[in-house]
């Protein structure tokens, strides 16, 4: 039995879960609404205040889908109650971020500023003095992670000086520069 898949998902009182057509799940909560369709092989049921995922057999594919389905459902419930966020750090001389309407204006050492428009359901916050911390917030964990990854790709961290955009707490392997000849 899948260790993750067999755990029931606790549904808080302020969250409403509806299961339609077998595997179309809609989760409504204080922060918004998420809906998704899951594999037809999985059996989803709402028993009291718990959401339960069952699989039909112990085949390899069903075992894999069992834990995945449970994790995705748990992320939906967490998203509409607490939300998700990713924090990015910008390092480099003159590198900074600022909010521009709902979007983000990044100065990353290019000859022009880079403007990032948020996807639906995503908000940006900028912190720090100078403003070098960007927080990506939303209710869909996948969209938050994808948006943060796309912002990070705008200026990857280079290994010699460590300049660029990185996740908060990310360790960057630094390389030694050239040594001077004839010391």
Structural overview:
The protein has 183 residues and is α+β, with helices and mostly antiparallel strands. It has two domains: 9-81, Outer Surface Protein A, domain 3 (Alpha-Beta Complex); 84-167, Alpha-Beta Complex (Outer Surface Protein A, domain 3), CATH 3.90.930. Helix content is 19%, strand content 36%. It has helices at residues 60-81, 141-153, and strands at residues 9-10, 16-20, 24-29, 32-37, 43-47, 50-54, 84-91, 96-100, 103-107, 114-116, 123-127, 133-138, 164-167. The protein has a four-stranded antiparallel sheet with strand order 11-12-7-13. The model has no long low-confidence stretch (mean pLDDT 92).
Quick overview of this protein structure:
This protein has 183 residues and is an alpha+beta fold.
Helix count, per DSSP?
2
**Mean pLDDT, rounded to whole units?**
92
Structural class: alpha+beta
Distance between the termini: 65 Å
Low-confidence stretches: none
Give the second-level CATH assignment, the architecture of the largest domain: Alpha-Beta Complex
Q: Could you give a short account of the major beta sheet?
A: 4 strands, antiparallel
Radius of gyration: 22 Å
């Amino acid at each position: 039995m899948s260790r993750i898949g067999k755990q029931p998902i606790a549904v808080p009182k302020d969250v409403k879960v509806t299961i339609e057509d077998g595997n179309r799940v809609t989760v409504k909560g204080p922060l918004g609404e998420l809906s998704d369709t899951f594999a037809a092989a999985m059996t989803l049921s709402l028993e009291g205040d718990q959401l339960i995922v069952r699989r039909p057999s112990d085949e390899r594919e069903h075992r894999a889908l069992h834990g995945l389905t449970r994790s995705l459902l748990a992320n939906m419930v967490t998203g509409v109650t607490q939300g998700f966020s990713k924090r990015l750090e910008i390092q480099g001389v003159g590198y900074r971020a600022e909010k521009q309407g709902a979007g983000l204006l990044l100065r990353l050492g290019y000859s022009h500023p880079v403007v990032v428009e948020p996807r639906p359901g995503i908000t940006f916050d900028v912190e720090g003095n100078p403003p070098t911390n960007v927080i990506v917030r939303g209710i869909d964990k996948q969209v938050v992670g994808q948006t943060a990854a796309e912002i990070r790709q705008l200026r990857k961290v280079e290994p010699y000086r460590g300049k660029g955009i990185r996740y908060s707490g990310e360790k960057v392997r630094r390389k030694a520069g050239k040594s001077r000849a004839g010391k």
